User: Fold Phosphoenolpyruvate-protein phosphotransferase from Candidatus Segetimicrobium genomatis.
Amino acid sequence: MSSSRETRSRTLTGIAAAPGLAAGPAAVWRDQTVTVPRNSGRQPATETARLTAARAAARDEIRRLRAKVAAEAGQAEAAIFDAHEMFLDDTALLQHAQQAIETGVNAEAAWADAIEFFAAQLEQLPDPTLRARAADVRDVGGRVLDHLLGRRTAGVQLDVPSIVVARDLAPSQIASFPVARVLAFCTAEGGPTSHTAILAKAWGKPAVVGLGKAVLELSDGTLVQVDGTRGEVVVDPDEQTARAFSQRRALAERQAVSERSAAADPATTRDHRRMEVVANIGAVEEAAVALEYGAEGVGLLRTEFLYLNRRTAPTEEDHLAVYTAILRAMGSRPVVARTMDIGGDKPVPYLDLPKEANPFLGWRAIRISLQRPELLAVQLRALLRASPGHDLRIMFPMIASPEELRAAKAELERARRDVASAGHPVAISLQVGMMVEVPSAAVLADQFAREADFFSIGTNDLTQYTLAADRTNERVAYLSDACHPAVLRQIRSVVQAAHAAGRWVGVCGELAGDPDAVPLLLGLDLDELSMAPVAIPAAKAIIRRWSWGDAQQLAARALDVDSAMAVRNLVRASPPA
Ligand code: PEP
Ligand code: MG
Assistant:
């Protein structure tokens, strides 16, 4: 799209990364190019000392940013800075820089070369998550370089509340913005799982990513409207567009306030069908947030956070402390803990996971757990020890065949015996279920229903495997819409098989909190929806507006259209009667 200023009210389309509407002046964050001097005439020992001092200063800054993000966005979001701190001490990186220093190169050039060497190596890797780490290495590298060159590294100034526009934003750049003055984020690059998306969601700021170069041609102060729900940015809106947008925003704000005020009430349809609405959480702090937003329990506790960004595997006591804190916060409400779902896009360096051509089709989740049973046993023992007095449920991720479920249940029984023989009490009744996120599990749901107490459908993975579209690859993001009828039909058959066997079924993928999908999932007869805490008030409000009968009719029609977009259009054109 042309960037000429006389074309008014241009619309740029990107990827919806964090929901919400915002309008304001653009503050364009431009990448700085730096020329690094190579020789100083100083002794190598002096250069080594300068590099050490710059790393120490960078470490202090990273720790301050970590504390800021932990307080404002949560521990899980702050964990990225632990990885940054680890890069600062990376032996291979330091050796590379030191060797150059010994040959007479100054600290800044030696460090800049080492960073570029490692970032370029990461960029060659097939795994998109590891490739994305190159940006983290450059981010940390730039921070150290700033200190060596004496450049200003203070937080970004925003004189007025602004829409931040950038090529892409590294976590430490995002964390440097004064949150209160950021209205929204727009980036030229990045996908829906980029750091910008994760932090923007945690801060409740709308974000649109992957907008292309055109967005970088904006001048500072240009008025832009950001629709983080649709993934659209309107530049220089004319009066009529601006008026319509501000009406939509005012309406959305009023609606959000009223939804929040009813968040603690149950979600019951007009014809008295109750839907359980629970939260997806990934850290202790999020349990309290979930309750604030009206969660009736936890439908997915992603336990991976316990394994990431550390140098050794968590001990049984590490696990126990976390599970006990979460169960205490939730009281008698149900908490579904998913056993470790690592591998795929969640690398864990100390486990020495082999590099694979197709990590999502490879050694991940239950596959690792069953081949490294000692790791799983530590987690299971801790879960069992934390269970007395609570409604803890355990589920296994990525189950593809019934033997895997049987083997996982056998591990749980072994852990139960170990815990009992060590004299620890265990909750008497404990439901054991599985995630349905591999198409084979959906197809064989009737067989699984004989052995699982419940199903939780992971639509994020179920969609990537059904449509054969890597969930982290922005080029195939157009295929990764869980509203696709091929996914909805699998949900329907899983629910039917489960209910025939007297089992309950939930959805815990992103689809559960998607406003378009909520009436469909109601109509498909799900028992529970589990979603990000912030999505709960709106989902409950949608359920209350529908009758179950109407939702069933809508779902039946949705199964017969031929694309995710057609499903969404159908829902949008069918407001509750
Ligand atoms: C899913 O796949 O839908 C899911 C909830 O699991 P995760 O997103 O953690 O893979
Ligand atoms: Mg999954």
Q: What stands out?
A: The mean pLDDT is 89. Residues 300, 302, 341, 437, 458-461, 508-509 surround phosphoenolpyruvate (ligand 1) (CB under 6 Å).
